[in-house]
Give the backbone structure.
Amino acid sequence: MKDVVEELAAVRRTMGTGSVPAGEAYTVELRRRYDAPIGDVWDAITSPERLQRWLKPVTGDLRLGGDFELDGGEHGEVLRCEPPRLLKVSWLYGPEADDWPGTSEVEVRLAEGPDGDTEFELIHAAVIGEPSFPIYGPGAGGVGWDLALLSLARLLADGSTLDHDNFEKSPEGREFSRGSAAAWGQAHLAWGGEPEQVAAAVEATTKFYVPDQA
């Protein structure tokens, strides 16, 4: 398995703007290649048994129009499902999020690569007024998605499962989260973020994901 530096470099990160039903949104976008056929990657992002191995346990109806809920409290509706190339869901956090329908969506696009591999793209669009954005910038969601895609990489490579809690506390995991926060800072700058705001957001994100150890 690649080390954390290689895995960080495998992802292309960008930030942009878009729209969701609730209005104007910002996006965090992650693109990378997986050395696995498109059918295998599609199965890994839609099969409940495999989803729990790289993301979180999921319950509900994963068909078009169905509602789902993850073990961490994230929940939503399957908005589009076009196997094996496109999956789009609404993405809400906790029961209070029901007061803000249409504020966050996640879309995954897959394309066949030239060597039997798969080009993977994930776009998370959230309303710009989301409270965490001014503090953490794109790292608010970006670091979490980086960790998830690292876990997916390991599952696709050799079927292994990443223990998120232990990994994030390990030296390797802390290095990965620090590198991810910095990489999202670079994406924020490229988007046009003010350098002082970006630096503060990277620091806040790093402290959140890599707290001081007692």
Q: What stands out?
A: Residues 171-191 form the longest helix (21 residues).
